[in-house]
Amino acid sequence: xxxxxxxxxxxxxxxxxxxxxxxxxxxxxxxxxxxxxxxxxxxxxxxxxxxxxxxxxxxxxxxxxxxxxxxxxxxxxxxxxxxxxxxxxxxxxxxxxxxxxxxxxxxxxxxxxxxxxxxxxxxxxxxxxxxxxxxxxxxxxxxxxxxxxxxxxxxxxxxxxxxxxxxxxxxxxxxxxxxxxxxxxxxxxxxxxxxxxxxxxxxxxxxxxxxxxxxxxxxxxxxxxxxxxxxxxxxxxxxxxxxxxxxxxxxxxxxxxxxxxxxxxxxxxxxxxxxxxxxxxxxxxxxxx
Length: 289
What we know:
Elements: H1 6-16, E1 21-22, H2 25-31, E2 39-42, E3 45-48, E4 50-54, E5 58-64, H3 67-75, E6 79-86, E7 95-108, E8 116-123, H4 129-147, E9 153-154, H5 157-163, E10 169-174, E11 177-186, E12 190-196, E13 206-211, E14 220-230, E15 238-245, H6 252-272
Helix pairs in contact: 1-4, 4-6
């Protein structure tokens, strides 16, 4: 994975400060949030809660509240601290932190149980860099999946490592029939694969590419359709097939993994730029020679 610099974190905060992320099951899995370790506290007491949505400036949580809670939070001036916990790849202990917030309102979750409420709150301090990085990586991947939709990444040992792709060897299900294949390149919008078979019988067939990403315990499934074939020189028995993904079914963890490559590539290119000369520099003088 790429290292997120302090400049990138500041950029994430500037670009995405007010962009909201809703914590669906897919988002929870992709961000490695640990729901059982999430709670908020006020004046020494704490209450378990669920993160419903958050930006870098506001949050909505879901919690069961009672009369004692309202008394407690009133004494605190509606100030709370929300504890977040995320798994860390390759680490046993999670990354945890509190973010201070001020409650702005309550909304009952449903008519049947008025004790369950949405709590809307505004962060009273800039969130920790770890939080900005986690949320920023997700939002940046989502943005780049649109802006760089068709840009291809040729799979080499280096690019596979940057993406977190365990192997270029994969399985593709064509019309629900599994076939071994080799991944030649990947993009946000599709993939190119090599497999043994006659291409004319595979064009326009539904396909599901299964890949293995670092940090994921299950295969990442990419649904789409085979749209094109390219000849492989000297090998009529091998088909080079282009898969176009179904945009509505592209997993979040895939977008985030692929975005790691583009983030690293951008840093690398910026590092190659030569420094500009000072604005008021002048040619060296020959006087006195």
